[in-house]
Design brief:
The chain has 7 helices and 7 strands, in the order H-E-H-E-H-H-E-H-E-E-E-H-E-H. The chain is of the alpha/beta class. It has one domain: 3-Layer(aba) Sandwich (Alpha/beta knot), CATH 3.40.1280. A 7-stranded parallel β-sheet has the order 3-2-1-6-4-7-5, with helices on both faces. Helix 2 links the parallel strand 1 and strand 2. The longest helix is centred in the last third of the chain and has 17 residues. It starts with 13 loop residues before the first helix and ends with a helix. Pfam families: SpoU_methylase (PF00588). GO terms for molecular function: RNA binding; RNA methyltransferase activity. InterPro entries: Alpha/beta_knot_MTases, rRNA_MeTrfase_TrmH, SpoU_MeTrfase, tRNA_m1G_MTases_N. Keywords: Methyltransferase, Transferase.
């Protein structure tokens, strides 16, 4: 096997990306403190061509050299908005017809693999909220969510890095929405 060169991968240009149809998914970062994590989420968001990224609270915003270090330009292709409070982002998403999930371990959470995409639930699309590296999604934000998703884990740790979580969740939405595995 021979590794492909970048030119052989037929990737979109940033201008083509902005015009292309997006996965109807908005990722919300609730007080994510690491700029490298923010950059990684931008990069994954570009890979899955998500509709947008909402940066909330203490979450840093572009332009920023540390975000760029891991985003590698994803911060230029993925649409983003800043909200001072995550609750404001949730209210805006719900007003626009999004079905909002928090990704958090809570009583009654749904395992990610059990997610069913129902266009009637998310008339406009879906949003997923990812929380702070230590505290997770704030309880007030969990309370505002339409549901909670959880990634099954089998080791001794009780959580994954937020950027790892973002990639797993985006992949599952893309897999189910784009590949007919509803």
């Amino acid at each position: 096997m021979r590794k492909l060169r970048t030119i052989e991968m037929n990737r979109l240009s940033p201008a083509e990306f902005k015009q292309a149809k997006k996965l109807p998914l908005v990722v919300v970062l609730d007080d994510v403190r690491s700029l490298y994590n923010v950059g990684s989420v931008f990069r994954s968001g570009d890979a899955f061509r998500i509709e947008g990224l909402y940066l909330c609270g203490i979450t840093a915003t572009p332009p920023n050299a540390e975000i760029h270090k891991t985003a590698l330009g994803g911060e230029d292709s993925v649409a983003w908005r800043y909200f001072q409070r995550t609750e404001e982002a949730v209210l805006a998403l719900k007003a626009d017809g999004y079905f909002v999930y928090s990704v958090e371990q809570v009583e009654g959470s749904m395992m990610l693999q059990d997610l069913t995409i129902d266009p009637k639930l998310g008339a406009k699309g879906y949003a997923v909220i990812l929380g702070n590296e230590v505290k997770g999604v704030k309880q007030e934000v969990v309370d505002m969510s339409d549901g909670c998703l959880e990634i099954p884990q089998f080791g001794t740790k009780h959580s994954l890095n937020v950027s790892t979580t973002a990639g797993i969740v985006m992949w599952e939405f893309a897999r189910k929405m784009l590949m007919g595995r509803v």
